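hi! just following up on the protien thing from before. the input was this:
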Amino acid sequence: MSRQRVPRREAIHFCFHLEQMLGAGVPMLDALADFAAGGGGHPAMRAIAATLAADIERGQPLSQAMAAHPRVFDEVFRGLVRAGEATGDLVPVLRQIAADLTRADELRSQARKLAIYPLVVGGTLSVAVGVALTRVVPQVATLFRSSGETLPLSTRLLVGLSDWLAAYGVWLLAALVATGVVVAATAARHLGFRLRLHAWSLRLPLIGPIRQRLALARVASLFAMLYAAGVTVIDALSSAARATPNLVIRGGIESAGANIAAGQGIAAAFEATGLFPALVTRMLRVGEQTGRLDSALGQLVYFYERDAREAIERLQASAEPALTVVMGLLMLWIAVAVLGPVYDIVTRLPL
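and the predicted 3d structure came back as:
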């Protein structure tokens, strides 16, 4: 079984290549051999294409050959390819997979951009404040103490923070690292703790709703693709659940699937979990009543992807000025707390 990791965009390029070649009437083996022999692209993806060609030549269907590379072709990917093999036409399935991967990649890219700016600003601010508290403030604090002047409150707070950091900074850093290690180890060993972490991540201010929208958009997209490809509702839900990293949402989907298997309606099964917003159950109910569940799922995908994209853009637009203001105010406090007493001392010196 392959353990190779390849970028998501390489999988998109692979789908596009196969779609174009098969649509032009090129046999599958020739299409895979052409991709493997291509000069561009990721070397690991070309090696996987060569392996797929060898497995197909030995008599395996494409979906079965892909099972040896689960990190590149997940269960949903293989299920869609299997459905395309059953209908005898892989071209529209590959086009659909490429479009879905492209949308998911765009949403992930936007989410990463949202995280990069706070990390850069936070890191820069932490370094600046750390240097000020550990290098600058201790030196001027000696001057302040020798002057015998009564220091303003802001300066006393700054000097006290510098002294505390000098005494306990190493222990604070060690405690933070130890906490991270303990949380990670506990989450890896205990499913209940991991579930609580995933539930907590959905309730985080500002970030939690965006994470939930991204997860629901992905689930709706996978469910819609599998259902449109002819996969049964229960199997489609099962595959979509396993492709969802958040255990809370995965558990809700699996619970809904179990209720549907027991004879409950799709909308009622989702509503019974108490996890999904009213929009989801309302759209599913309309799709059930009109017999156009695929159309309702498509509308749901469009809404959640648009909603997630707009929420990311709004948060990014507000986070940048807010962080800039916070950084400016903090640096202004340090400057005033240090330079104010220095100015007072200098003005009292005899000319």
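The mean pLDDT is 82.
Residues 116 and 180 are 21 Å apart (CA to CA).
cheers
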